[in-house]
Every structure is written in C-alpha cells, then in structure tokens.
Design a protein that fits this description.
Blueprint (H helix, E strand, L loop, with lengths): L6 H4 L2 E6 L1 E3 L27 E3 L1 H18 L1 E2 L8 E10 L2 E15 L3 E9 L5 E9 L1 E3 L7 E2 L3 E3 L6 E2 L7 H17 L3 E5 L4
Antiparallel strand pairs: 1-13, 2-3, 4-12, 5-6, 6-9, 7-8, 8-11, 9-10
Helix pairs in contact: 2-3
The structure holds zinc ion (ZN).
Length: 198
C-alpha cells in the first residue's frame, strides 16, 4: 500500500527561515565601532542586523551539516568561476575575520602542496610518514577584502574534499529540497517559505 504524500510534501520549499532576533551588539543597526575597522560592520552579526536564536542556530548548523554530507564534491572537480557554498576567512588590517557560509565564486585554486606529515607506526613498528596536502581556494571578493578558504587538507591531492557544493544544478536543487524538508520537520527553529506563499 502506498502512503499518499501530504499536501506539505508536494509543495516546493523556496527557503527556510531560521528563528532569529535583533542583534544585541549593534542594536539592529548592523554597524558597530569605528568605520576604520572593517568599515564599521558589526562583527557579531556580520552586518546582518539579526542573530540566530539558539533554536535557529541548531537548525542552521544541522542544515549545513546535512548539505555538506550529501553534496560535498572533490576539490579536483571544481574550477575557476564555479559558484560553491563555502566558508571563508580573510584579514581586515591585522584582524583575522571568518566569513560565514554563502555562495562564493572561485577566483583561483592553488596547486596542492605538502604542508605536513602525519607519522604512524605499521605493525612491525616502522614509522610510516603520510603527507598532508593543502590547497587554498581564493574567492571573488565581495567586501573588497580578499576571501579564501581555510586550508583544505587530505592525504593525497585526490582526497581533498571541499566541504562545498555546486550551485544551480538539478542534482543540488533536489538535495537542497530534501534537506530543507527534513530540517523543517525536525526543528522548531526552522520555518519553511513555500513558492506559492509569495
Ligand atoms: Zn550586530
């Protein structure tokens, strides 16, 4: 016997809103501190004026984790100009800044290089040195600052996984749709916006 899909399961989710509240650091202005530091953009909310509540944050983190798990692609599949969902870090003067996940366009991908070795022992007690390869992805800058990934590592160049996924492919759209459905079902801090609600 087939179970009929409920009306909600047939509607396409456009986006998920995570429970949020006005940023307390900047009182919802998005600006904090002198203009000379990061253009006066509030560090706490990254200029977004709102912050996620604990419930919203749990739902948001789980969304990111599921998308990572289900749609990560090997770095070797990516090329300049691809748009991927990724975190980045950069510098504002002497201040290191972590930028949150967003769609970012790849500007360049460095050659893999060996940054370290991990040393383990095989069953005969001999040292086994395993190289750790590192790659840095630089993104087209949005705020005038250079934005790049934290280095991505793996024990061979082929094994380096970008914790990222491509935008605008049918495959990605279906994965995203499935993740959003699951998140809305599991978390009270997540609310679906359906296409026909507009
Ligand atoms: Zn703020």
């Amino acid at each position: 016997m087939t179970v009929p899909a409920s009306a909600d399961e047939e509607r396409r989710i456009k986006t998920v809103i995570f429970e949020n509240t006005e940023c307390g650091r900047c009182d919802g202005s998005g600006q904090y501190g002198p203009a000379s530091v990061a253009n006066g953009v509030c560090f706490s909310c990254a200029g977004k004026k709102t912050r996620l509540t604990k419930k919203g944050e749990r739902a948001s983190n789980e969304t990111t984790r599921l998308l990572d798990e289900r749609s990560s692609v090997p770095l070797s599949d990516l090329k300049e100009g691809d748009v991927i969902w990724a975190k980045a870090s950069g510098w504002s003067g002497f201040h290191p800044i972590d930028y949150p996940y967003k769609w970012r366009q790849i500007k360049s991908i460095s050659e893999p290089r060996v940054s370290a070795h991990s040393i383990t022992k095989d069953e005969d007690g001999n040292e086994v040195r395993t190289p750790c390869y590192n790659v840095t992805v630089t993104f087209e800058s949005i705020a005038g600052q250079e934005e790049r990934t934290n280095s991505l590592g793996g024990s061979s160049p082929e094994e380096i996984m970008a914790k990222t996924y491509r935008q605008r492919t049918d495959e990605y759209r279906e994965i995203h749709q499935g993740v959003m459905r699951e998140i809305v079902r599991r978390f009270s801090g997540a609310t679906a916006v359906y296409y026909e609600d507009e």
